[in-house]
């Protein structure tokens, strides 16, 4: 039986991305609670949390290492184990803030690298998945992308619940071991996910063997027009929905209590995000990933502008907060599908390309968050929630219109060359 037939179902391959969600979820919810219990102030907690999340921006610099010499399965597993060890050590050292901060930062960087190695790996075997499912590439890319995000959301929801329970029921050392093993657990699926294969069934590693070869392939990757178009698409605020990170800070404008905001931002939101990601494969039956991404961005931007009509009540906060998060989840899932579908079967820099493109989706969240904050303080004579809604919604709508025109005007933007290798091996 060919190796391409011996693989787990798409949903299980996608759920193996839960390591990323588990570590990220720990930083967002249990870590601030753990620090508060140690008597750390609010400002210090915010600074530590921001530092621990920083690898999400700069880890793309290490992306090329995921394509060097060893298989992406090796790197995905290695960094998943390192993520678990880092998190366990951080919990044990919770009374020593510098060590805890460094350990969580290393854990999150390892989780991001594991996720990126997995993304490059799944993109490289996508043609095998399509063949086994007797389906088209675009739809299977969306299915894979959707389930990777489901894994991330479920991981975040699981650790939001289990971290507190473990620390309450067990000694710190045992709780740390259990949390570390939980972070490593999704990697148990990796041995069952096949490596890329040639037409004759021979397994391929598609990893470069030397730094000279790596730099040569990297130079060629950066000359591909479709890669730069995808970078432009993701760097523009077409699907950032940065309001998801700002609304919690202005909850008092809606007369919403801290407890209400915490409940909205906990495990319920994580499971809601996981559920909505599964809508993408349904939409992908009629719309390909690239126009689907812009459609989601356009609809979400119009919804943001529609928030101007809502009163400033806790119910309106719930609607805005949930909807912005849901649309952001849909947008990022479709972006992952685009990244997977552009990798190709014999791409020796699959993980590098996946890392580069997905990192680009993070940057608009950063700069749009800053702009939303300035709009709230007062920008061009409009301030408060009205300013945030107007600037965020209008800029995103314009960005979607510009990229839609580019997609229509230049065929290279429309073409998702899933079968074009970066270089013949």
From TrEMBL:
InterPro entries, sorted: MFS_trans_sf
Keywords (A to Z) from UniProt: Membrane, Transmembrane, Transmembrane helix
Superkingdom, natural source: Bacteria
The UniProt record lists the keyword Manganese: no
Annotated organism of origin: Granulicella aggregans
Cited SUPFAM superfamilies: MFS general substrate transporter
Protein name in the entry: PAT family beta-lactamase induction signal transducer AmpG
Membrane-spanning parts: 12-35, 41-62, 74-93, 105-130, 142-163, 169-195, 227-244, 264-283, 290-310, 316-340, 349-368, 388-408
């Amino acid at each position: 039986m060919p190796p391409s037939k011996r693989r787990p179902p798409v949903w299980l391959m996608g759920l193996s991305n839960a390591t990323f969600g588990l570590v990220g979820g720990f930083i967002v919810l249990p870590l601030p609670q753990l620090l508060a219990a140690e008597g750390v102030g609010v400002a210090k907690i915010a600074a530590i949390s921001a530092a621990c999340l920083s690898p999400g921006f700069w880890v793309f610099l290490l992306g090329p290492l995921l394509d060097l010499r060893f298989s992406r399965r090796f790197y995905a597993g290695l960094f998943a184990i390192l993520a678990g060890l880092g998190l366990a050590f951080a919990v044990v050292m919770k009374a020593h803030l510098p060590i805890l901060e460094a350990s969580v930062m290393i854990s999150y960087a390892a989780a991001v690298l594991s996720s990126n190695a997995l993304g490059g790996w799944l993109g490289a075997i996508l043609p095998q998945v399509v063949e086994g499912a007797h389906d088209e590439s675009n739809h299977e890319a969306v299915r894979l992308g959707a389930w990777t995000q489901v894994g991330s959301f479920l991981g975040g929801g699981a650790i939001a619940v289990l971290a507190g329970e473990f620390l309450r029921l067990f000694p710190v050392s045992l709780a740390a071991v259990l949390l570390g093993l939980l972070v490593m657990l999704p990697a148990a699926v990796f041995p069952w996910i096949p490596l890329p294969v040639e037409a004759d069934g021979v397994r391929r590693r598609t990893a470069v063997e030397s730094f000279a070869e790596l730099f040569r392939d990297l130079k060629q990757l950066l000359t591909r027009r479709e890669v730069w178009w995808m970078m432009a698409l993701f760097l523009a605020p077409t699907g950032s929905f940065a309001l998801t990170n700002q609304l919690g800070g202005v909850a008092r404008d809606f007369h919403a209590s801290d407890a209400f905001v915490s409940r909205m931002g906990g495990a319920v939101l994580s499971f809601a995000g996981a559920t909505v990601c599964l809508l993408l494969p349904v939409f992908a039956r009629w719309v390909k990933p690239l126009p689907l991404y812009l459609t989601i961005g356009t609809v979400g931007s119009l919804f943001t502008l529609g928030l101007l009509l809502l009163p400033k009540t806790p119910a309106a906060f719930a609607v805005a907060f949930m909807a912005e998060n849901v649309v952001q989840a849909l947008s990022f899932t479709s972006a992952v599908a685009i990244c997977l579908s552009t990798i190709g079967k014999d791409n020796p820099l699959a993980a590098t390309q996946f890392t580069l493109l997905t990192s680009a989706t993070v940057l608009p969240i950063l700069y749009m968050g800053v702009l939303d904050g300035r709009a709230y303080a007062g920008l061009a004579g409009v301030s408060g929630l009205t300013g945030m809604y107007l600037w965020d919604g209008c800029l995103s709508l314009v960005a979607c219109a510009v990229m839609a025109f580019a997609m229509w005007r230049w065929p290279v933007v429309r073409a998702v060359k899933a079968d074009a290798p970066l270089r013949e091996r």
